[in-house]
């Protein structure tokens, strides 16, 4: 393999070659893993998406630019693009600020009730599709519990931009929170202590030490939330009102108008803002060094205790946490209500229906997400490591391939999957494997981001020390780098697991009679008026996921203590 | 506790896969879980053909069958507006079959090549929330023009005509009733009252049931389902006459042979008395005249239907939708 590249590339590239080749020769195993991961990403992420997107210019009759022009000439396309950008930017800012405030309060202050805030901040990851949107209608709609019953407003209009920002910010705050919290925890607080002992005020320390050090996590939160918002389809469809986004338009073109050209084109347009945001982010972060983990002993001791700081922070945190809880309480309430808003008698009927129907689909979801999660987390960490620490020739394929899969809307991925994996040699339709693959691919980027941020903090010399002492690069990765990545690993495991359980837009095309999932069941109930049953399923799902996450945290803490 | 549960259900699943060697018919079905299940259970009880279904929306079914063209994963597409089937037939995705009882069906409602089989008929009905109508001091809806009444300002929900059969039938009905230009003018007037366009055709009547809007259009079976669930919903038919949807089913082209055999068996069965009774139990109207669901609250026998030319509606779908998109939806947004 390396020989081939050698002879093929030498005549043109000349002097630039030896360095990358030496890197391959030094780490043949690592290079093998790199090739394997890159190939998997190309096959499972890039190929299916490209298969769909190429239809923007590729009709059954051949290459066709005319259709492209007609679609682009329509003003609604550009309005949808503008809407998508505004919504993405707003949600990204709001969610990141909320996530940062909570992460900072939890890691750096003596705020009471941290466990509660932590739990509330994480809760929205477990938001089965459509449910938050239903809750907002029940709370703030025309017959809403708050708008009509509490405030007596008769003409509340819940449909539109404002609701979308609220829902998306709520739903994506955990991404920002997890990301920033992981980073705040692993910053060596000696730096902050130093600033304090040199006479820096608390504000100076925050502004000049803490904030710059978590910048990578803040930027990547903005990036992740922005991309998630751009590809979000369920919420704009349900409560967007006249505010139409690209994801909605792409979906209606493909599934409604049977216009694959226009659908594929709109989906490609969605990728542009996401990819651009990613480029800016890369450029920004790569210019600075964020190393604080140097191998010298660290102590996480700094705690801000003054009421002047803690009180307002606590108030904001409690307000955010209570808002999140309000939404879940609504779902909980609906699950025990006969006909919410119409007949508010309490009942156990919905749970009876659920228990009679059985837990096959929930079992399926847990089983498949259980397989997908470790794959996602480990692959995410490995890819982060390969991208940050090793520059093999072809790294860009891996980087852009994973990003493409994250930025592409689930619908595109789903349709691409059935088209691509429906014939030998890649025959996967109808199997569990195709669903697992989709779950992994859809959530990989979050693991990569978490790992990348963490790695940027870790001084290379720690790993170099290990290699100098004779450890292979594989051993270095497993015994030095991986343990240092632990906080990022947990957050990406937690994220991958819950997102795999609650994912819908991609897997709706992949479920089969043997393998159907809990989210598809919930969607069916929502679509056929059985809001109560859907809410009951959601509550059960939330409880199960919380139990598993608590268990995981427990095991992780124990294994950390044993070391 | 959770883990044994997941494990045992995973085991149960593996077993069910193992015993599925007899390869039951795989069905894509957009009706509710209960409706898909009850119709297929009746089919199994009557003919011995076991079937399993995947419940996804009609538009998604078409997208999926198209993507699976090279190696079809399902034998039967059960239910959905005929428009979807006309489109699928045009793309060669369906296996034609002249169902045994097709001569009992009005030929206007059937495909002449038998690419798909009509299975039931659903009239459009107006669903309204009496409390909200009273609150808005709006007249009880009795005509298509009621939707454009300024009294219903921000009080109407419609589905996207592109993603919902319900909304497309409504559009085609209005156009057929009053001519194309007048029809589009009416849709533009209605648009001023619309607070939300939904993806699914069921959603607007659900919003009426929940007191979110005063007025919506729905197929009769959706209103029946809401009434059966106990929602206080009222309904009315337009005095000009209403449009309707022909529901269809079809065998998927190039499906494995045992799948194809079972699928054609279903198409023959669904037009029998028992098949029509099973469809009727989901509150959809019969396509073979005769069956009446004793539990239905809406009397379908006296509904004034327009002479809905749905072959025309199917053939002009793309054109009408494009005009609708440009003149009604996006024009309105820009204002």
UniProtKB/TrEMBL annotation, chain A:
The listed locations are: Cell membrane
Task: Note the InterPro entries from the entry.
Answer: MetI-like, MetI-like_sf
Mainly resides where?
Answer: membrane
Q: Does the keyword Transmembrane apply?
A: yes
Q: Which UniProt keywords apply?
A: Membrane, Plasmid, Transmembrane, Transmembrane helix, Transport
Q: Which residues cross the membrane?
A: 29-50, 85-107, 119-141, 161-180, 209-227, 260-280, 309-336, 366-388, 400-420, 426-444, 501-522, 534-556
Superkingdom as given in the UniProt entry: Bacteria
Q: Name one GO cellular component term.
A: plasma membrane
Q: Which segments constitute the ABC transmembrane type-1 domain? A: 81-281, 362-552
- Report the record's Gene Ontology biological process terms: transmembrane transport
Q: In the UniProt record, does the keyword Transport occur?
A: yes
Membrane-topology descriptor: Multi-pass membrane protein
Q: Which family does it belong to?
A: Belongs to the binding-protein-dependent transport system permease family.
Q: What is this protein called?
A: Binding-protein-dependent transport systems inner membrane component
User: What organism does the UniProt record list as the source?
Assistant: Paracoccus denitrificans (strain Pd 1222)
From TrEMBL, chain B:
Q: Name one GO cellular component term.
A: outer membrane-bounded periplasmic space
Give the signal peptide range. 1-22
InterPro entries from the UniProt entry: Ferric-bd (IPR026045), SBP (IPR006059)
Which terms under GO biological process does the entry name?
thiamine transport
Q: Which UniProt keywords apply?
A: Plasmid, Signal
Q: Which PANTHER family does the record match to this protein?
A: ABC TRANSPORTER SUBSTRATE-BINDING PROTEIN (PTHR30006:SF2), THIAMINE-BINDING PERIPLASMIC PROTEIN-RELATED (PTHR30006)
What protein name does the entry list?
Extracellular solute-binding protein, family 1
Say which species the protein is native to: Paracoccus denitrificans (strain Pd 1222)
